[in-house]
Amino acid sequence: MKYIIAVIQPSRLEAVKEALSKIEVFRLTISDAQGIGRQKGHKEVYRGHEYRVNLVNKIKLEIAVNDEFVEPTIDAISNAARTGEEGKIGDGKIFILPMDEVVRIRTRERGSEAI
Q1: CA distances in angstroms from 102 to 41, 110, 113, listed in the order given
Q2: For a Cys staple, 20 with which of 25, 27, 39, 77, CB 3.0–4.6 Å?
Q3: Structure pTM?
Q4: ∠ CA 78-71-28 to the nearest 5 degrees?
C-alpha cells in the first residue's frame, strides 16, 4: 500500500479527478494549499502599488492506494495535471510514501481491504 500526495494547480483539479475516475480511483482527499517553489511567487497590483506574492495557491490531493494502483495513479495525475505538451514550472509534484497500515473505522478492517 502507498500513500500518494500530489500538489497541483487549482485549474487542473477537474481534469485530474476525471483521469482518476477513469482508472477507478475514487477515494481521495482534496485540500487547498499554498506554497513556494521554482515559480517563486508572482506580482500583483493593488491600488496602483505592485506587490510580490511569494505563496502560490495549489491543491493538495491525498490518495491511499493498493500497490497495483500506484503506477496508474501516478500516470493519471501526471498526464492530467501537466499544462501543455511539455508542461510548465509550477505544474506540481507527486510524492509516494509507504503506508504500513490503514484501518477503516466503521468495520475495523485493516490493510488493503480497508482502502
Answers
A1: 36, 6, 9
A2: 25
A3: 0.85
A4: 70
- In tens, the pLDDT along 32-61 reads 999 887 766 667 777 888 777 778 899 999
State whether residue 40 is helix, strand or coil. coil
Phi, psi (deg, nearest 5) at residue 76: -60, -45
Domain CATH code at residue 53 = 3.30.70.120
The predicted structure's pLDDT at residue 51:
76
**Torsion on CA atoms 8, 14, 15, 20, rounded to nearest 10:** 90
- Residue range(s) defining the domain that contains residue 109: 2-114
DSSP state of 23: T
> SS3 of 18, please?
helix
pLDDT under 70 in the chain at which residues?
39-42
In Å, the largest CA–CA distance within the chain is: 58
Q: How many domains does the chain have?
A: 1
List the grid coordinates of 59. 491543491
